[in-house]
Specification:
about 325 residues; alpha/beta; four-stranded mixed sheet
Length: about 325
């Protein structure tokens, strides 16, 4: 049985740890509320931008749309043997439960799936943890943007995202990649963050502004909007406006993926620290009970010794 001094030392150690976990939980909670606020405000802009691009795309000349789609189909045929740029997003620090390990497992699984399809995979990790894990496993990574989340959180900088999207577009225009995927945690609620793969749509079609809603929904709405083609008047032409707005939509989609990952990270860390705090409280109860039992046993033994010595004298 441990001595009273050892038990007391463990209690003091756990109390110190509990103070740290409680402080980290409060900090993560504050950062989570900030990230949620940023996300809610940004989604208003992103949704309106998507609606605008959808309207412009649907009111564009049908012959031009057909030419664009034929060109895109030819481009996709030519680029079918090119590589996919996979961008996994993790945190820069730990103590957030299985957040980072789940991203690493999903990234390795996705790499295996893409390679089984005959695709070459290029990696551009965002986050120190995923960059470190991939490098340890021998993967060649572009780590130029691994610290992007930290810079965004500090000053809410949209310019950093613009640089990333410009780099991606340069790779695509030079013919080095034909597809871009973001692998990240999608923030659903405080206790639910789901890993998902989102495509960054580099080519234009009738559903570009719809993101995850997909091309099928955009095609189904096309006939509805065709009757209203003459309603929209734009200056310059819809094609020129789409050329200007499409890069902005790519920036918005990328920024949305990063904000969702940021909120998921803080939620995971807050839940992990809350669990650690509760486990520490339970352990303290057990140790205090053990301390009291040990102390009572020591007092009982001392009384027995005193009584035994008095009997011996008689």
């Amino acid at each position: 049985m441990a001595s009273l001094k050892e038990i007391k030392s463990r209690i003091a150690s756990i109390q110190s740890t509990q103070k740290i976990t409680s402080a980290m939980r409060m900090v993560a909670s504050a950062k989570l509320h900030h990230a949620q606020s940023m996300t809610e405000k940004f989604l208003l802009y992103k949704d309106e931008l998507e609606k605008t691009i959808d309207s412009l795309q649907l009111t564009a000349d049908s012959s031009m749309r057909q030419k664009d789609q034929q060109g895109e189909s030819q481009l996709s045929t030519l680029n079918s043997q090119l590589s996919t740029l996979l961008i996994p997003i993790s945190s820069n620090s730990g103590l957030c439960g299985a957040y980072n390990s789940n991203i690493t497992k999903a990234t390795l699984q996705r790499i295996e799936e893409l390679e089984s399809q005959g695709k070459k995979v290029r990696l551009l990790p965002i986050g120190k943890k995923i960059a470190h894990d991939l490098q340890n496993k021998g993967f060649d990574c572009n780590i130029g943007y691994f610290n992007l989340l930290e810079r965004i959180e500090k000053d809410s900088s949209f310019a950093e995202v613009t640089f990333l999207v410009e780099f991606i577009l340069q790779l695509h225009q030079s013919g080095e990649i034909d597809h871009v995927e973001f692998l990240h945690h999608h923030f659903k609620s405080m206790g639910s963050q789901v890993i998902q793969v989102d495509n960054l749509q580099l080519t234009a079609d009738s559903s570009m502004g719809q993101g995850a809603r997909g091309r099928e929904q955009g095609a189904s709405q096309l006939s509805t909007f065709n009757s209203q083609l003459s309603t929209f008047l734009t200056e310059p032409s819809p094609e020129e406006l789409l050329t200007i707005l499409r890069p902005r939509l790519l920036n918005a989609q990328t920024y949305g993926f990063l904000l969702s990952s940021l909120a998921s990270e803080h939620a995971a860390r807050m839940m992990a620290m809350q669990t650690a705090d509760e486990n520490a409280s339970e352990l303290l109860k057990e140790l205090r009970l053990l301390y009291n039992k040990t102390r009572q046993q020591a007092i009982t033994n001392e009384l027995i010794d005193i009584m035994g010595s008095q009997v011996g004298r008689r």
